[in-house]
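Narrative of activities, Objective 1.

The group set out to show that a structural description can be obtained from nothing but a protein's sequence at a throughput compatible with the screening campaign. Below is one input-output pair from the validation batch, recorded exactly as produced.
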Amino acid sequence: ADRILPAYDEELVRPVAASLRRLGITLHLGCAAQGLAGAGNGLRVRSSNADEYVLPADRVMVAAGRRPRTDGFNLDSFGLDMEGRAVRIDEQCRTSMRDVWAIGDVAGEPMLAHRAMAQGEMVAEIISGRRRRFQPAAIPAVCFTDPEIVTVGLSPAQAEARGHAHQVALFPFAANGRAMSMEATEGFVRVVARKDNQQILGWQAVGRGVSELSTAFCYAIEMGARLEDVAGIIHAHPTLGEAVQESAMRSLGHALHI
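Output recorded for this entry:
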């Protein structure tokens, strides 16, 4: 890839890349690992223009991709319907075989622990006789970099792809009192909402500790909140959460601090 964290839009990734550079970390973008060097003391790398060189290294860690851990379950003998490498499930996590459910990473994206936990709770209730379905309006995703990235719901690009006439507003932590006192002013909160009725479609944020804002983001989307709902809630001062309110206020045209 030509940039880090390609699953996130460039605006969110920019503060993370800047933080890495400040730490003295060199990023080799657009390159491909070719294998260990002959002496085992480095990594052979091919650049985007096909040049090869060796990066000296004591250890090489491969941290790309995940595979379901199904060893010992004799899963192949079940003959379950698959979607690629993932087990196909419905909204109750049922597989194609009666009384066999699948939850978590083995059932495909998004591969998130909190999604798996919610699915597991639902399946346990179904087995005990309750009627349940897994239909969340929003599942938060957090990238625990420094600064952190959190996304909930639709990004601007996703809203555009789905044909939503939408509006986007961003509130920078540089204008947030708590962020200033923490010396953590890099980053922002961004809200995506429908233009016709201001219903909130998605939230994104990057900054120190923004993973803690994911709950507020989920509440807003699960409850069908509109911009004016969030803008009208009194937030404690000084807190990072004020940036959530101010992003909604800015989308409505009356942010206080910028």
